[in-house]
Amino acid sequence: MTIDTVWQDPLQLPVLEDNQVHIWRANLDLSETELDYLTAFLSPDEITRANKFRFPHLKTRFTAARGILRQLLGHYLSISPRKVEFQYSDRGKPQLSKIKSDHSLQFNISHSQEYALFGFTDQALIGVDLEYIRDMSDALKIAERFFSVREYKLLQETAKDEQQALFFTLWTAKEAYLKAVGTGLAGSLDAVEIELDLRGNPYLHSIQGDRDVTVDWSLYPCLPTTDYLGAIAVKTDKSPKQINFWHWHQNLLT
After folding, report:
1. 55 DSSP 8-state letter
2. What 8-state DSSP symbol labels residue 19?
3. What is the C-alpha to C-alpha distance for residues 197 and 215, in angstroms, rounded to an integer?
4. Which of 10, 131, 146, 224 is a Cys-bridge partner for 189, taking CB atoms 3.0 to 4.6 Å apart?
5. Alpha-carbon distance 29 to 159, whole Å?
């Protein structure tokens, strides 16, 4: 189960209100002209990183993802995308440079195959995860190693034809939280315990065995497109009505 995910096609970039969460999806396989446009937004270090990719499609997708991220940040900050400056946590999570910006905007990005997911909100920490739904014949073995005992048992007791969907539901939920707090997969997956509500939607059950800390968090799954699953974690109480889903398209470049 997921919350209703209605992807809107904006005619222009929308305003982010104080109480809103904006989630964007984007197909990263763009034309050469569109890539050239986005490449102009990138910093020298990002261009260097892009050029290190061995395979052209990976370079293309990295360039597109960074260019789109800069375009959206520039819009929300009311500055040129070229003037957006990042600083990185010791785990590599990008954040807005505090030296250059006192803005409270928070963001996160995830990409898998040809799609990317971007999350933006004001003040609160946010994490997003996106996974391509692929065959996971070893899902139980991975869960036994990286999931909590409760989660592994839940997966084990699920019908085989539903195990893959449940595995990705749990995985994306965990990863979204870990990305929000800045640890990513370097954090302990089994310390982030996910439970399902009566509708089958995931929620944070406990963090390192502590249930009290989870009350500060909202966790939602979403369907970015066919064969993909996403999750959103926000450190504040947000209702589904406050989450806006936007489809990024090439016309927004002009």
Report:
1. S
2. T
3. 15
4. 146
5. 36
Check whether residue 46 and residue 114 sit in a common domain.
yes
Does residue 8 lie within any of the structural domains?
no
Instruction: Provide the 10 A C-beta neighbour count for residue 34.
Output: 15
Structure tokens at 224: 């970015």
Domain that holds residue 161: 131-231
**What is the C-alpha separation between 151 and 172, in angstroms, rounded?**
13
Domain total in the chain: 2
How does the average pLDDT of the chain come out, rounded?
91
> Tokens 């893959």 appear where?
164
* Residue 131 clears pLDDT 60, i.e. is over it: yes
The answer for residues whose C-beta is within 8 angstroms of residue 227's C-beta and 6 or more apart is 132, 133
Structure tokens at 162: 């539903």
- Strand-pairing partners, residue 202, are 196
Per-residue pLDDT tens for 151-188? 999 999 999 889 999 999 999 999 999 999 987 655 58
Q: Which residues contact 147 (CB under 8 A, 6 or more apart)?
A: 155, 170, 189, 190
Q: Examine residue 72 and state whether it is found in any structural domain, yes or no.
A: yes
Q: Does 9 fall in a domain?
A: no
Residue 103 domain-assigned (yes or no): yes
This prediction has a pTM of: 0.94
